[in-house]
Design brief:
Low-confidence stretches: none
Number of helices: 5
Largest sheet: none
Radius of gyration: 27 Å
Mean pLDDT: 77
Length: about 120
């Protein structure tokens, strides 16, 4: 009996599409398309000629406004997390936030008068 390594079963491709792949792949494509539409609307400059400055309560426009709002929220969360991890790695090594200390600001005299 001849034994080879690797055997023929190892060399056969094992990738098979499952029903979940048929659900997830279109959802990912739709999410990418929605992000593209939201980014195009959010990246336009605001001036007098921008047509998006006029807010319409037409029900056909409300999903687009909601999409742009959700896009801005995710962008804000992403920037917040990026700032948090940047400062969290930078501060302990250099004492970077000593100048931004809120404890010193709260204990100052003008902040004490806010409560009274």
């Amino acid at each position: 009996m001849r034994v080879t390594f690797p055997d023929a079963g190892v060399l056969r491709p094992r990738f098979r599409l499952t029903p979940w792949d048929l659900v997830v792949v279109p959802l990912v494509i739709v999410a990418i398309l929605l992000l593209t539409v939201a980014f195009q609307g959010a990246s336009q400059p605001f001036d007098e000629t921008t047509p998006d400055l006029i807010v319409s309560l037409n029900p056909a426009n409300l999903p687009y406004y909601g999409l742009r709002t959700v896009f801005r929220m995710f962008l804000a969360v992403l920037l917040s997390v990026l700032f948090t991890f940047t400062v969290a790695t930078w501060q302990p090594s250099r004492g970077a936030l000593r100048s931004l200390s809120f404890q010193r600001w709260i204990s100052s005299s003008h902040c004490r008068s806010w409560g009274s």
